[in-house]
Amino acid sequence: QVQLIESGGGLVQAGGSLRLSCVASGLTFNTYFMGWFRQGPGKAREFVGGISRNGGSTAYADSVKGRFTISRDNAKNTVYLQMNSLKPEDTAVYYCAAGAGGISSVVYTRSTLYPYWGQGTQVTVSS
Predict the structure, then answer these.
(1) CA 56 to chain centre
(2) Segment 87-97 mean pLDDT
(3) 48, 68 in Cβ contact below 8 A?
(4) Quick one: how far is CA 72 from the chain centroid?
(5) Are the C-beta atoms of residues 81 and 90 closer than 8 Å to each other?
(6) Residue 86, C-beta contacts closer than 8 angstroms, at least 6 positions apart
(7) What's the chain's average pLDDT?
(8) Structure confidence by residue, pLDDT tens digits, 28-39
(9) pLDDT at 82 (0 to 100)
(10) What is d(CA 51, CA 95) in angstroms, rounded to the nearest whole number?
């Protein structure tokens, strides 16, 4: 079955950086578009960043644009989220998600298009 395993979360001071990784198994990775979502305390889950199946297109939430970068390594079945200039409002559980089909160059931002989810990794940014 499809499994997504996130890692790299932790506690960091404001202004610091973290890199999240998500290793996928049980799927043909290069046929899946990938995304990162997050859910902060008392908040709804929200889109953070996404990358197309072919890796050629990316998209970000306005709140993280210019600070976060999503990338993928199809040879390693892994998607990354590099997070720089972290702010306390970035504190959340971060989830990796995968979806199949669609157009290879398109980034999908709606959570309902992603049937597969990881267990989440906690990111805490202290002020």
Answers:
(1) 16
(2) 98
(3) yes
(4) 10
(5) no
(6) 12, 14, 15, 16, 17, 18, 67, 123, 125
(7) 97
(8) 999 999 999 999
(9) 98
(10) 14
